[in-house]
Design goal:
13% of the residues lie in helices and 35% in strands. It has three helices and 13 strands, in the order E-E-E-E-E-E-E-E-E-E-E-E-E-H-H-H. The longest helix is centred in the C-terminal third of the chain and has 13 residues. The chain starts with 8 loop residues before the first strand and ends with a helix.
């Protein structure tokens, strides 16, 4: 369901961000290709500091390492890089190499850009999505399944929970905590908005046209589908793309 967009020739900008002095620009700063005329992409977003004398457990990153990837603009390869996903800020940090002293940049927040993780072939791109509270946001979704009628995605997110200090010697302190969780979304062919997949079958069925609901409900019952399981969602969308 990928679509190539023909746009006027322009410079694509990435702004380098670094916590070290004497930062140098990456290859991304010099990429020229098809893009929005005069487009200037977002600067490295400030990371949220959580200063506290309490211990903090967990991480804002899906993987602390920078892992190899390819970056595409539509179907054009920009180059080979290394990335990690800060799922708390929903930011993709990117570098030319794995060397620790090299400053990272923020992947530009433009929807024609996509990233393919070369370790497990995951594809990551910025999408508009409607979350479980029916609020439309932009964020990074990982593609699980691409079909003629529906695409299936998952979203990695991180929640911060502030710890507590002991009020007396009988009460233990609790640490600050970063907790990871995953949500699933789907997108219909021709649509530019991904929809949240809830765990209740009735809510899930309402997302589809009436003529498909009966057959889909029968399939979910027959196959004993659990909408909380990724492998079962893959089966459901393979079915939907086949009918």
């Amino acid at each position: 369901m990928k679509k190539t967009i023909v746009l006027p020739l322009a410079m694509l900008f990435f702004y380098a961000g670094s916590f070290a002095q004497g930062a140098t620009s990456t290859k991304l700063d010099n990429f020229t290709g098809n893009g929005y005329a005069g487009a200037a992409f977002s600067e490295m977003r400030k990371k949220l500091n959580t200063p506290s004398d309490l211990e903090t457990v967990g991480s804002v990153y899906i993987d602390e390492r920078f892992v190899p990837c390819k970056v595409y603009y539509n179907d054009e390869v920009i180059g080979n890089f290394y990335y990690r996903h800060n799922a708390f800020n929903d930011e993709v940090e990117i570098k030319d190499s794995q060397f620790g002293e090299e400053p990272e940049s923020s992947l530009a927040t433009i929807k024609e850009l996509r990233l393919v993780d070369e370790l497990d072939n995951k594809e990551l791109a910025l999408k508009a999505y409607k979350n479980k509270k029916d609020i439309v946001r932009n964020g990074y979704l990982y593609q699980l399944n691409e079909g003629e009628k529906y695409d299936l995605f998952f979203k990695n997110s991180v929640k911060f929970t502030e710890g507590t200090k002991p009020v007396n010697s009988m009460v233990r302190a609790t640490p600050n905590k970063f907790s990871h969780f995953t949500e699933y979304y789907f997108m219909k062919d021709g649509d530019n908005l991904a929809y949240h997949i809830g765990h209740r079958k009735s809510e899930f069925l309402r997302e589809f046209d009436k003529e498909k609901r009966d057959s889909l409900a029968a399939y979910i019952k027959e196959e004993k589908i659990n909408l909380k399981k990724e492998e079962d969602l893959m089966k459901v969308f393979n079915y939907l793309n086949s009918i």
